[in-house]
Design goal:
Number of domains: 2
Strand order of the largest sheet: 1-9-8-7-4-2-3
Helix content: 25-40%
Distance between the termini: 10 Å
Largest sheet: 7 strands, mixed
Oligomer: single chain
Strand content: 5-15%
Number of strands: 14
Structural class: alpha/beta
CATH topology of the largest domain: Aspartate Aminotransferase, domain 2
CATH superfamily of the largest domain: Type I PLP-dependent aspartate aminotransferase-like (Major domain)
């Protein structure tokens, strides 16, 4: 049994975390030198900077002109909670869950909002629920890309144009790296910290005209926290989506988001970022194909994520371990790679099956993915010898 030797070279950027993710190539703190620190976020130039984030995002992503784009507190989580608390309850809801975050939305709707007419369509890690079972006469909530399972929906073809309910899409680890079917989506949420490599805490909330109509025609029966209020007296508050944020934003984070968006434009826009991300997935796929001890957690290659790429160890000695020992072995690999400075933060998510999770979003260079693979071989060999000699 041959054990891989320790590689001589390391990835130039060993930051493979799935969030916050690697900064854009060439980033330095000097990118923030023009940030309007010390200025009110209500000041005219600050509002213009905030609006610039939305405007550049609309152009890059091809978001329809009649969709509203706003910056809200609490990252993607805050944006999603804000939407659910404000709009759910008008009709029944179908919730798709195949990983931790989707399951979290189900829990919030059932246990916190306490809606009664809820259908949870679940699948195990590595698979998707049966999309053909979704009832679009109801509201529908799903993640475009399962950040903790590495499984994404293949496209938006399963969503009808003549749907009666609203579609709520948590797109945080998909947007900018995958082509979203905007016309099929009514509520879209994401944060800057994923594919853009931006800073955390601020979320993006995008609403279709149908979502705005819901806000103006339906008032939930529960108390609404100030941070979630998007309507007053039955009228949509459009100011929130034109640079007037509900609460104070960080102008440093806003400046960083603008810098990331300018980088996207320089790279060639949305199509270029999709290409970069898919190239990273392809590089890992080439390695997995010739490696007998590892497989993708996603069982169907058409639903395999190109951002949160999840791997599972399938060697006989590993499979024979109990769950606790598998987790310990996986963590040992992660620890070895961290100590060597070859890869940081690539352990599987705490609720996911033991294994590895490697970020392949557009800020990652494919050459670094290729440099990582020999290190994965080495770390695996070190752990394997502890169990099989």
């Amino acid at each position: 049994m041959t054990i891989a030797a320790k590689p001589n070279s390391r990835p130039n950027n060993p930051n493979f975390s799935s969030g916050p993710c690697a900064k854009r190539p060439g980033w330095s703190v000097s990118a923030l030198s023009d940030a309007l620190v010390g200025r009110s976020h209500r000041a005219k130039p600050a509002k213009a900077r905030i609006q610039e984030v939305s405007d550049r995002s609309r152009t890059i992503l091809g978001i329809p002109d009649d969709y509203y784009i706003g910056i809200v507190p609490g990252s993607d989580t805050g944006a999603m909670e804000m939407a659910m608390w404000s709009m759910l309850g008008a009709r029944g809801v179908d919730m798709l869950a195949w990983e931790s975050f989707g399951e979290g939305w189900v829990s919030d709707v059932v246990k916190q909002l306490k809606l009664e007419d809820v259908r949870a369509l679940n699948a195990d890690y590595g698979a998707l629920p049966d999309l053909g079972q979704v009832d679009f006469g109801r509201d529908v909530i799903f993640t475009w890309n399962g950040t903790t399972s590495g499984v994404r929906v293949p496209n938006g073809d399963w969503i009808p144009d003549d749907r009666e309910g609203l579609t709520f899409c948590d797109a945080t680890s998909a947007v900018f790296a995958m082509d979203l079917a905007w016309s099929k989506l009514d509520v879209i949420t994401y944060s800057w910290q994923k594919v853009l490599g931006g800073e955390a805490q601020h979320g993006m909330l995008i609403l279709s005209p149908r979502a705005v109509q819901r806000l103006e025609s339906y008032a939930p029966p529960w108390p609404m926290p100030k941070l979630f209020r998007m309507a007053k007296g039955g009228k949509f508050n459009a100011d929130i989506f034109s640079g007037v944020t509900i609460n104070t934003v960080s102008m440093l984070c806003v400046e960083d988001a603008i810098d990331a968006l300018k980088w996207v434009e320089g790279e060639g826009g949305q199509a270029a970022l999709v290409k970069r991300s898919e190239a990273n997935l392809s590089a890992l796929a080439n390695w997995v194909e010739k490696t007998d001890w590892v497989e993708f957690l996603a069982t169907d290659d058409s639903t395999r994520s190109c951002t949160s790429i999840c791997l599972t160890i399938v060697a006989d000695w590993f499979v024979a371990l109990d769950a606790g020992a598998q987790a310990a072995a996986s963590k040992k690999m992660v620890s070895l790679l961290d100590t060597e400075g070859a890869a940081f933060d690539i352990g599987a998510y705490r609720d996911a099956p033991p294994g590895l999770r490697i970020w392949g979003g557009a800020t990652i260079e494919t050459a670094d993915i290729e440099s990582l693979c020999p290190w994965l071989e080495w770390a695996y060999g070190q752990v394997m010898t502890e169990h099989v000699g």
